[in-house]
Design a protein that fits this description.
Layout (H helix, E strand, L loop, with lengths): L11 H10 L8 H28 L17 E6 L2 E5 L5 H17 L24 H12 L14 E9 L7 E4 L5 E9 L7 E3 L2 E3 L2 E3 L2 E3 L6 E5 L4 E3 L6 E9 L1 H6 L25
Antiparallel strand pairs: 1-2, 2-10, 3-12, 4-11, 5-10, 5-12, 6-9, 6-11, 7-8
Bound molecules: fe (ii) ion.
């Protein structure tokens, strides 16, 4: 990406929106931000291939799939329109936590590309299927929330996912700015929270089918998930104490094939090698 100040003209309202979104104080800061965007663009361009290569190098101790042992009858409560609290999720929470902590330490000490789950979270790990059976996670939530016989739930196909952990606390991330997820449906499972008053999940005011819904805050409770549509704008409040969440971004290739929600355009799909599920797109 190149910025030509003399030849590039942005519509004024777009420019002010961009400045606001990227927290750019003055025009003089714009080239610096564009340099940062170029660095991130290059990182992402080679990331899928690096992840694919690193996946095959994961040492034998991680090659045994850990199948999450799910609680078959979790309690489900609608805590706001189309936002649910569900749990308990795992019967074997300590084993899951231990496995993911070991993998996270392994990635950090071996400088593996999994050790930065997305562009906003610096602490946590992206999880390949040979570390945790992520298909089973999606199947679990799909059965709970996308069964056609259940009224007022979601009508998504959920045929792939991106799964990662996020870690907060001293020396780690402290909070997370407002954003929407690159998913149709997200399950945000709290694996550990030393202080339930910390790190609440915040949702902005929303309008759905003409109905207004107020902003809301939800506690992060161990072994419970908050399930919401990925498009809802949300953030995580400050965490002073340790907190770890398992995030499941579940995707519907039919929805994504029509429109990419990140760029707002019809996707142009390629045959290049991609990590796991290629962002949920299918050719
Ligand atoms: Fe999110």
């Amino acid at each position: 990406m190149t910025y030509h100040p003399n030849t590039t003209r942005m519509r004024q309202e777009n420019f002010y929106q961009l400045r606001h979104d990227l927290k750019i104080g003055s025009v003089a800061e714009l080239p610096v931000v564009i340099d940062q965007l170029n660095v991130e663009y290059k990182r992402r361009k080679s990331l899928d291939l690096e992840l694919e290569n690193a996946k095959s190098s994961i040492q034998a101790s991680f090659e045994n799939l850990i199948s999450p042992n799910f609680n078959k009858n979790p309690e489900i409560t609608e805590i706001s329109k189309n936002i649910y609290r569900v749990g308990p999720i795992f019967k074997n929470l300590p084993a899951i936590k231990n496995h993911l902590n070991t993998f996270s330490a392994h990635c950090r000490s071996n400088n593996l590309p999994f050790a930065r789950p997305n562009s906003m979270n610096k602490y946590g790990v992206l999880l390949p299927k040979n570390v945790l059976n992520t298909d089973e996670l999606t199947e679990f939530f799909k059965n709970l929330f996308c069964d056609k016989s259940i009224e007022n739930r979601f009508n998504f196909k959920l045929d792939s996912q991106r799964v990662f952990t996020v870690e907060y606390g001293t020396g780690k991330d402290s909070d997370l700015d407002l954003h929407f997820d690159d998913s149709e449906l997200t399950a945000n499972i709290c694996l550990e929270n030393e202080d339930e008053n910390d790190g609440k999940l915040f949702f902005q005011k929303r309008v759905q089918n003409g109905e207004h819904f107020d902003e809301c805050f939800f506690d992060q409770i161990e072994n419970y998930a908050i399930v919401h549509e990925g498009k809802f704008v949300h953030s995580a409040e400050n965490s002073q104490k340790n907190r770890m969440n398992l995030i499941v971004w579940m995707r519907d290739s039919e929805v994504r094939g029509k429109l990419c929600k990140m760029c707002g355009e019809v996707p142009d799909l390629s045959d290049e090698p991609r990590f796991e599920y290629a962002g949920g797109f299918k050719k």
